Amino acid sequence: MGRVGLGVAVGCAVVTCAIAAALVGRRARSWWRWARVVGVVGQFEEDCVTPVWKLRQVVDAMVVEMHAGLASDGGSKLKMLLTFVDTLPDGNEDGVYYALDLRGTICRVLKVQLGGSGSKIINHKVEQQRIPEELVSGTSEELFDFIALTLKEFIEREENGQVPGSKKELGFTFSFPIRQLSVSSGVLIKWTKGFTIEDVVGKDVSQCLEEAMSKNGLHMQVAALVNDPVGTLAVGHYDDADTVAAVIIGYGTNACYVERSDAIIKYQGLLTDSGFMIVNMEWGNFWSSHLPRTCYDIALDDESPNRNDQGYEKMISGMYLGEIVRRVLHRIAEVSDIFGDSAHHLSVPFILRTPLMAAMHEDDSPDLREVGRILEESLQTSGLSLKAKMIVVRVCDVVTRRAARLAAAGIIGILKKIGRDGSGGVASGRTKGKPRRTVVAIERGLYTNYSMFRVYMNEAITDILGQEIAQNVVLRVSEDGAGIGAALLAAAYSSKR
Ligand code: BGC
């Protein structure tokens, strides 16, 4: 080989080595980046685990906090609020009742026709209206005017242009923590679910609504002011007398149950004729060191308008699940390039809403087409690899599984408190060796709209209680229960006056 030939050969070898080195380098870098993604997801998964022993700790912590909240106001983060609902509708209620159901971002108006003499609900009609975003942080007057007008327009349509001349009774579902003064009145303790209308805090919300209605020419009075699970429990019990508790897992989360009045120590021994009262737990504010909390939960809480509050809600409810996923994906985008150029969209809070998360989680197409489509629409990603889409599904799974299992532990906590968990004791779920049927009413929300949530929740109930006891616990879905229940309670309480 001549000199030239040798030179060319050496040159080629150098170039080949350089290309090989570059390829190996790129591979190594991509391997490292992928290892970091796996590391972030693995750590998150580990921090979110909810083995049965941990769930049982959550059950017991719930029971302890329930006792503390019943003993004194401020005794626990669980407020255990009195509702003054000590009679439940029994089917003898008669007539047409309207209800207004103010949830998170949605307001529903309902007309319920009751037949009396045990004939149950003859008919009901529901319409809903989105609360304009600016009202969530506006003034009391703007909010109550808006909902009063929504109700008035609905009633006018239903009554062919006529609005009631003399005072009619209304059921008002107000889905925020209220300290009730009576069954028909109560003051707002604080806002949740992103609402920040400061001038309502400390005010009687029934009075605010009545003033707004009267200002707008609608003469109605609130006969029952109820929190949403209380309405759900009223309907649940009306349909099935074994119903002892109700749970809402929607945009927010909460539960209530039927408690013996002598167990409500802070009620200072005032016994009710029925011997019971429904207690609104405000369980979204439950907290225990046994809850598996991650750095993402901490950051979410720190940046929320209600820091250190609603800790359980922030792990369970629809307002937050998509946001937790977004935070984990954002971290993944920081350590890798799997989301490409659009990663910066992941820094926008609440961009990934829970219904989208549910749709991605439940995508069963082999190439995860729906995941790709949703991420493309909400984050403007394009051409995501299958591996990246699988990671997204994995994160959704971890977040939902933890939420559903923790919610299940909360339910078993209530059942344990009232002796319906089959663990023995005076008021146990076992009577003379036979387990008692126990029904928990549950509003549609995540339980019906997110099938993986439902699957994980039912699975956890069986894990905690065991097959034999779990088969006697029925989660019964109630549609529009919160609003219909308010109308039913308005009927029950106005007939008592
Ligand atoms: C509120 C509760 C309400 C629940 C479900 C929570 O944020 O504090 O009062 O029942 O959401 O709507």
TrEMBL record:
The keyword Ribosomal protein does not apply. It catalyses: D-glucose + ATP = D-glucose 6-phosphate + ADP + H(+); a D-hexose + ATP = a D-hexose 6-phosphate + ADP + H(+); D-fructose + ATP = D-fructose 6-phosphate + ADP + H(+). Residues 42-238 form the Hexokinase N-terminal domain. PROSITE patterns: HEXOKINASE_1, HEXOKINASE_2. Its EC number is 2.7.1.-. Pathway: Carbohydrate degradation; glycolysis; D-glyceraldehyde 3-phosphate and glycerone phosphate from D-glucose: step 1/4; Carbohydrate metabolism; hexose metabolism. One of its GO terms (biological process) is response to glucose. It is an enzyme of class 2 (transferase). It comes from the Eukaryota. Residues 245-491 form the Hexokinase C-terminal domain. Keywords: ATP-binding, Glycolysis, Kinase, Nucleotide-binding, Transferase. GO terms for cellular component: cytosol; mitochondrion. Belongs to the hexokinase family. This is Phosphotransferase.
